[in-house]
Amino acid sequence: MSDCLFCKIAAGEIPSNKLYEDDTLLAFYDIDPQAPVHFLVIPKRHIASAAALGETDAALLGHVFAVIAKLCKDLGVDENGYRVVTNVGQDGGQSVPHLHFHVLAGRSLAWPPG
Ligand code: AMP
Ligand code: ZN
Fold first, then answer.
1. Burial 58-75 (b: 16+ CB within 10 A, else e)
2. What is the pTM of this model?
3. Closest atom of ligand 1 relative to the 86 alpha carbon
4. Quick count: other Cβ atoms within 10 Å of Cβ 84?
5. Residues with a known catalytic role
6. 8 A C-beta contact, residue 9 and residue 19
7. Is residue 90 within 8 Å of 49, Cβ to Cβ?
8. What average pLDDT does this structure show over 88-114?
9. How high is the mean pLDDT of the chain?
């Protein structure tokens, strides 16, 4: 999608602090971190949000979570734990309309979220 911030980051047109990249996914640190470790995992393909996912995206989602588990292990936050969040739409607090998974770690996270 031509006018999408995260499509531009995925294409390398806008720089990011990259953590991981493969053919289908990109992980990069959030520009406004809400925890000592806060990164985003996005599919390179434009998907507007989790609301646009279907059965045919099962492999992509399995890959997303496998990569998150590996990165959290590499970063040494797997033992204490972490949170994976994807916001959907206005009430969900989604500000960038390209599917992304927040991964937050490094402090005790409150529940319920605000
Ligand atoms: P959400 O509000 O759930 O849509 O999350 C969007 C996230 O993208 C926010 O946490 C922002 O801080 C983050 N963000 C926005 N622009 C950038 C950028 N250029 N590089 C990294 N993270 C960004
Ligand atoms: Zn996009």
1. eeeeebbeebbeebbeeb
2. 0.98
3. 3
4. 15
5. 100
6. no
7. no
8. 97
9. 97
Burial of 91 (0-12, 13-18, 19+ CB in 10 A): exposed
Give residue 2's pLDDT band: very low, low, confident or very high (50, 70, 90).
Answer: confident
3-state secondary structure of 70: helix
Q: How far apart are CA 4 and CA 42, in angstroms?
A: 12
**% of the chain beyond a pLDDT of 70:** 100
Q: If you measure from the C-alpha of residue 43 to the centroid of ligand 1, how many angstroms do you get, rounded to a whole number?
A: 14
Q: Would the CA dihedral through 39, 26, 58, 71 be positive or negative?
A: negative
- pLDDT classification of 114: cutoffs 50, 70, 90: confident
